[in-house]
């Protein structure tokens, strides 16, 4: 096992998931619930299952598509999102003042 890769992926995911909605939901449930153990194990099980499904799906897609095509699809997806945010986001936010 590549321990460097394991540590790097753990740190990356850990930092990106701080303050995630699932953590906030677990905190809210544990403040109201009678059994914190049940909430902890339910939340941990759900997070493990979603991570497992994501890893299996990612592995399956990586086996089916060459890396070059996968990178191209990801790049096009990010480019489309960027273009939509820059050029087609004409909706005013509720906090903004109307322009005359």
The N- and C-terminal alpha carbons lie at a distance of: 62 Å
Q: Any idea what the radius of gyration is?
A: 20 Å
Profile the largest sheet: none
Fraction of residues in β-strands:
under 5%
In helices, the fraction of residues equals: over 70%
| pLDDT averaged residue by residue | 82
- What is the chain-wise order of helices and strands? HHHH
What can you see in these coordinates?
- The protein is mostly helical and 100 residues long.
- The protein has a domain at 20-87.
- It contains 4 helices and no strands.
- The protein has helices at residues 3-17, 21-32, 36-64, 67-87.
- The radius of gyration is 20 Å and the shape is extended.
- The mean pLDDT is 82.
- Keywords: Membrane, Transmembrane, Transmembrane helix.
- It holds the Pfam family GDT1.
What key attributes describe this structure?
transmembrane helix, 100 residues, metal ion transmembrane transporter activity, mainly alpha, extended
Break the fold down into its secondary structure elements and pairings:
Elements: H1 3-17, H2 21-32, H3 36-64, H4 67-87
Helix pairs in contact: 2-3
Put the structure in a nutshell:
The protein has 100 residues and is mainly alpha-helical. It has a domain at 20-87. It has 4 helices and no strands.
């Amino acid at each position: 096992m590549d321990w460097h890769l394991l540590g790097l992926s753990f740190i990356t995911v850990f930092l990106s998931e701080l303050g995630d909605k699932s953590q906030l939901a677990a905190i809210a449930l544990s403040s109201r619930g009678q059994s914190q153990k049940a909430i902890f194990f339910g939340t941990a099980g759900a997070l493990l299952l979603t991570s497992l499904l994501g890893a299996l799906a990612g592995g399956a897609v990586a086996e089916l598509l060459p890396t070059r095509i996968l990178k191209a699809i990801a790049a096009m997806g990010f480019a489309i999102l960027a273009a939509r945010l820059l050029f087609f986001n004409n909706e005013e936010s509720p906090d903004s003042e109307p322009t005359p």
